[in-house]
Structures are given as structure tokens and as C-alpha cells.
Amino acid sequence: xxxxxxxxxxxxxxxxxxxxxxxxxxxxxxxxxxxxxxxxxxxxxxxxxxxxxxxxxxxxxxxxxxxxxxxxxxxxxxxxxxxxx
Amino acid sequence: xxxxxxxxxxxxxxxxxxxxxxxxxxxxxxxxxxxxxxxxxxxxxxxxxxxxxxxxxxxxxxxxxxxxxxxxxxxxxxxxxxxxxxxxxxxxxxxxxxxxxxxxxxxxxxxxxxxxxxxxxxxxxxxxxxxxxxxxxxxxxxxxxxxxxxxxxxxxxxxxxxxxxxxxxxxxxxxxxxxxxxxxx
Amino acid sequence: xxxxxxxxxxxxxxxxxxxxxxxxxxxxxxxxxxxxxxxxxxxxxxxxxxxxxxxxxxxxxxxxxxxxxxxxxxxxxxxxxxxxxxxxxxxxxxxxxxxxxxxxxxxxxxxxxxxxxxxxxxxxxxxxxxxxxxxxxxxxxxxxxxxxxxxxxxxxxxxxxxxxxxxxxxxxxxxxxxxxxxxxxxxxxxxxxxxxxxxxxxxxxxxxxxxxxxxxxxxxxxxxxxxxxxxxxxxxxxxxxxxxxxxxxxxxxxxxxxxxxxxxxxxxxxxxxxxxxxxxxxxxxxxxxxxxxxxxxxxxxxxxxxxxxxxxxxxxxxxxxxxxxxxxxxxxxxxxxxxxxxxxxxxxxxxxxxxxxxxxxxxxxxxxxxxxxxxxxxxxxxxxxxxxxxxxxxxxxxxxxxxxxxxxxxxxxxxxxxxxxxxxxxxxxxxxxxxxxxxxxxxxxxxxxxxxxxxxxxxxxxxxxxxxxxxx
Lengths: 85, 185, 472
Description:
heterotrimer; A: alpha+beta; Alpha-Beta Plaits; four-stranded antiparallel β-sheet; globular; C: alpha/beta; nine-stranded mixed β-sheet
């Protein structure tokens, strides 16, 4: 997906997220869980959120952590009732 | 989104990327509302990494990247489509049968929360004090939730007595007379 | 029979066509009728008034609602949903998670017999019993499970004595049931049973040795058949003449499937007059080893049908034997009242019909849920009864297992089937079931269809099922 750019050489990932699909509170909650492993920066990029993830420990896998971050954020979004059936 | 020659080739809203081991499903939010998409995606969280993008008014993209490289992505994509239908049906049914669901839940809750508890010390039926929001035993005067004595207010002692049977004869009041105490419920 | 043809309304119905002249019509409260093709055409085209006999048939059954039968239909609905007016009647206490066995399908994830920290103390047992008696139900059944409850029998005895005290104070009735693997039966255990009658005892016997020992082994790996069957004989001998209910249950795994006749004959050998051919739950060890012990719905149904036909044949030869599913399903088809079995109602008993209490006093919705904190409702020492019973978890389970939000609503078997949200969650990842592919739903639908076939088309076998239905 175009909104996800993982740069393994820089141990960095950049994700652009639609706030209608990933509200800020869920992102912030996830950030507090992952701050042990990642330096997390959440800013605005037009109407979207721009999330930049950087590895704290270079031995970790940035790709895996990024996807785990996204899954965790999604489950927080679901819990909050966004898109609750 | 939907290929033009649908009759010949069938509906195909999923792109498979074998190399990257992921699929991208493109979905019409007018057919599958956001709540249905989220619920369907949720089921795949243990098998796949998920990312959602797009415009909730026009088109939603869902990427499912398998956690296990041996996962059959084509099958995963088909299962995802089936899951969407499952949740769409759920939403329709849930709305359609809402009054029935409400009636069943309300009845179950009413049975279990309408103060049918009994004192484990003396066996009396517990009562509920609205002001203090506690359930207490009228015999032991114990607040059973907080294990403190529930002080019975004067109003708790008053009973209906339209024929004045409970009222003892008293001489006419003189100044300084106080109300009789210890009227028990 | 009605005197005149009144204005009527047709209840929400679903149909199943067995053949041209046997069209089954079912409605929400479990009432049903069989129509021939001509009758069905009049029925579906709303021309019932053209045939007085048809009108009367539908009126009697409550398939059509009129001013004169509406009170009876309302009463029928109330009877069908009687359990919603009662509160939890089944309370399951887990005095220990330790067990001396490691069964292939254990859904408790039992701990080894020497594990520490998995036993209930008497203080917790008291708090658990106090909580149990907060139910509005006038009668309770307290069931002791595990692990194996015989490994912490002190807590069991304490709980029974205290429960009897409370029952007397509150003028409630209480029954007890011990569920144990019967590998620890000694004279003390027999003495306990004799001193505590009336009491129920339930164990597992999965069939002849070659089946039982594959499914149910000691922690060390040795089979348990010899010890269990020796205990069964001992208990039956010692407890003759006592007010004592002794049952055995089977759990069917892949290993059991070829032995449908032998399993039933094993139960006959030990004098059991009923057998419950329980299918696997995809929970606990069963989920982990599904490839080795699991099966498809079709495989199980094939096994069950053969067993069922064999048991009917035995009944025709005046050999008493009934099958659990057949008995349960016949009961909900032939009686107005829903079953006493908390697992087989809609909504299911989780939370509102049963509660489970583990060794720490944590409260769960039911015994299938006991190892998953997503179904934890609170703790007996810190949660109020109201909080527990009105929790969002309980409400969600009531909602889903009512079946109204699912496509079960469109099925003719809707009034006679049940959903287990815990099983659905474990197999599917969400409590909303995939009603087309769910193992339990597929199996149930086939069993219900079979039972209806017997009732409608076979007088002799229908009579047998009516007799079983009366015992549920």
C-alpha cells in the first residue's frame, strides 16, 4: 500500500493514515504501548496523520514492529467503537 | 474497482501479490459499510497484518499481509470476502430484530438485577435503598456490598397506617413534646 | 378447535420441505405443523379461511394468531423463555485446576498433580458459596469440576456443608453434583457419597479400552480405562439402594468414529441406560490438537446417525437406552418448555443460567469459558452480583446466543438449536458466528432434521422419542 514506506536501511517506517479510519486517540494509545521499542512521531500531513517509527534497538525488525504497531492500532480502533457492529 | 467484463471473468475485487505475500481488497463502502469492513478484518488479526486506507465515502482498501509465509493468500482473500458477507448479514439481522433482542436482554437483566438477593446471615430478602444506592438487609441493617451498617433513616421506619392502628393514644401535645422514637418497620 | 373463522395473523414462520406432502412449518416459540402441498399453498397465499380444517390445525398449534388464542400463545412464549425469569441455577465450582490426567481434549488446560498455587482455600470457597446464593433462583445445583475436584476434596466438602446451611436459612433447595475422573476412588470417597445423599456423580467413559485409553490418559501417558471401569463397578455395587444419580459421558474424537457400536455396547455393559455422544469443543487442548483428534461436521453426523439408529433398534428390542442429543432435541421439539440444559437454550445459559467460579474466586460465564479472561465477569470477593450479571460481556452473550442477530433466524431449525458464543469465539476469533460453516450449527441442524424425520414419518420411533422427551 502506498501509505506505508518501510526503510530497512534507516530502521525507519513512515505511515500516512486517514484520521477517519485511524482516529488519533487510538494511535496515541498504541504509541504508549510501543514506546519501549520505537521512537514514535505523530504529526499532521494535510488531512492525514503522518506516523514515523524509528527503532530504538537496531537488532529489532522494523518491518515486523511496524505491522504489529498497525495491528495493535486497528484493534484499539475497533475497541473504541469505530466501526463497531 | 469491478472489472467490466464481469459476466465472463466474475467479480474480482482482490489483487494478489505473491512476492510480498499480501492481498489488497478494494471495497465499496455503500455495499459494505465501514463497521462491516472493520468487523471482517478483525477476524484476520491473528493470521495477517492489516492496513486500511481509502476514502470512507468512495472506496476502501484493505491490505492483508500473511504473518506466515506459507499461508495460501488466495484462500485468505476469498475467506475475507465471505467474512464481509457474514458481517453484512449480521448488521441487517441485528437491526431487523432489534425489538426482540431488546426484549430478551431486558428480561434477563431485570430478573438478575431487580433485588432478589437474600441475606447470607439471616436469610431475609435484601432491600434496595435508592438514596444510598446500596442493597441492605432490613433485619441486620447491613450494607452487604460494603459490609458497613446501613443507617436506616426515619423515613425507612414509616409504614402506611390509614386506620391509625399503630398510633398509641397520647395526651394532647404541650410545648416541648418530641415525636415518639423507635417505630420499627 | 375454534368455532368460527376469526381474523388472524400469521406468526413469523420458516419452512422445510421433506417432500411434496410433508412441509414442516416452524415458528419462533417452537410450535410446528406439517402441511401437505395443497394446505401449504393456501397457507402461504393467506387463504387459510378457505379450509376450516386447515384453519383449526394452525389455530390449535398457534401458527396463526387470533383474538381467542393470543393469550395461550403468549403463555407458550413465556414457557419457552422460562429461564429468563429465574436467574442462574447451575453454579460450577472449580476447587482445583490440578489433575492426575491429561486428556486429549481437556478444555481446562489442567495442571500437573504436583503444581502449586492452583487450589481453592476455604475462605474463597465460603465467598463463592455466598455469591452463588445471591441468585434469585429458588433452587440451585452446585457442580464441582476441575482439573479434577478429587485433588482438593477439602474445599468440596466445606462448600457442600456451608451451602446446606445457607439453603436452610434462605429456604432454597440445593443439589450437588461431583464431576470426577474416578481414578481416585477409595473407601473415604464412598463414605462421603453415602453421607451426602442425595448427590449426583458424573464421570467420563469414552468407550471400550482401545478408544478410552487413546483419549484419556494419566499425566504420565498410561491409559486410565482399567482404573476407571474398576471404580465404576465399585461405586455401583456400594451405592445400591441409595438416592444416588450416577452418569457417564463420552467425548467423541476422531479415534471414536469407527467404534460407534462398541461405545454404546460398552455403556450397556456397565448398566448405563443413557449415553451422550458429545462432539468436541474447539477449546483448550482440543483446539491445539485438532488435526489429530478433530473431524468435520459431516464425519461426526455420520457417526451420530449410525449410533442413533442402533439405539432405536435396541429400544425396539425393549433394551432401555437413550442418547443425549436425541433426548434433548426431542424435548425441545415436543415440549413447549425449553430444556433444563443450560447449553441448549437461546439465549444460552452463559451468565444467566450458569456461572463458573475458579480456584481464585474469579467468575466466568460458563465452564467452556473458564480459561479465557475475555469471559471473566469479576471476582466473588470484589464484585457485586448486579455488576456481574449486568456486565457488557453477559449482555453481548445474551444478544448473540438469542440467535436473532444471525442468519439462524431464517432457518426452520431456529427454535430448536443453540449457539455457544465461547465455542464460536475460540474457533472463529469473534463471538459472531459464521452460521454457514460453524461446526456446531451444522451438526445440530442435521440432528434436528433427523429427529423431525423420525417423529413425522416413523410412528414407532416417534413414540420412543416422545418417551425420551418426557424425561428431559
